[in-house]
Fold this protein.
Amino acid sequence: MISRRIITPAKFWHRGYTTGIFSLDSSVGLSDEQKEIHSMATKFAREQMKPFMAEWDKNEHFPVDVLKQAAELGFGAIYCSPDFGGTGLTRLDASVIFEALSEGCVSTSAYISIHNMCAWMIDEFGNEPQKKHWLPKLATMETFASYCLTEPANGSDASSLRTSARREGDYYILNGTKSFISGGGHSGLYLVMCRTGDTNSGPRGISCIMVEKETPGLHFGKKESKVGWNSQPTCQVIFDECKVPVSNLIGSEGQGFSIAMKGLNGGRVNIASCSLGAAQGSINSCIDYMHTRKQFSKSLAQFQHLQFKLADMATDLMASRLMVRNAALALENKHTDLVTLCSMAKLFATEKCFNICNEALQIHGGYGYLKDYPVQQYLRDSRVHMILEGTNEIMRLIVSRNLLFSA
């Protein structure tokens, strides 16, 4: 078992980001402290995740025990303030962690990234009693959190969501359905974007309300059968006259859409980081396979066509990593173009890294299509990254609008 040492926030809080130059080795260019974080996450992924990722996928097992071990390392509330139990690291640190963890299991790492997004939303927009009550539980993963935005009839058009929350005294009464919710049925806390304004109020009528799992009127649909991401449960979350205290409102009424979108800026960097890990894992598998597999009396590593293909894969991974880490720095520093940069990074990295996984499967030939080899799981688990946290078509829309219509 890995030595599960808690990251001490005070040690990592005040420090320089990097030496400024990144390379093929994902730890190159990081500060000494970041290299230590990277090493810790990599060791955990290799020892506690990768040996079990195929089993978790096959059995659709949600590895709660492993998630809590990750939390012991400080991975439950990575970029939340230490004041209420957060680890107090940066967005770049989080990207490094999610990339490293995803070499061990993309699906499990992606769930950790969503949980962290929810924790940050409470840390950033919640009041002191909300932070004091929830952040320690989220940091230790005593409680898991889910993000509830998408609905059966409203995916990319999120501002048209229909889940309602009508005010009755000191309570909101929620009605509606959320779809494709990671952790649905298992998470203890749901951050729900719902309409407190009238049906025509658009994004200004949306609020963010926390709903606890045992709340009367909260129900869950069947567990979805998915192509990938099988180590985390996904289902509809259904509200039927679900009565929630007004004190569970995060921020103010009408602020929910803004909170949701700001959460997604970080979510896009996080999920792109998970794609980096899938691509790195696929390239590593190719290198091993090309040295051992022989055809026409020589190893695959001696075929120039495959050498060129591997070079292209590594180049695309390097370019993706640079874009993702640049976006993480923009997010941390609240750069003027952070929305565009996060969208660009998510668009570029998720597509390039999926292609890397696909090429890796091709290099493995028929063996790559077998579940005995990890490349097919990296491929399946990373495919959805081009859909969630905003489809890549929406990413293109965000980028083009910035180019064409920004002042």
Q: What stands out?
A: The longest helix spans residues 256-292.
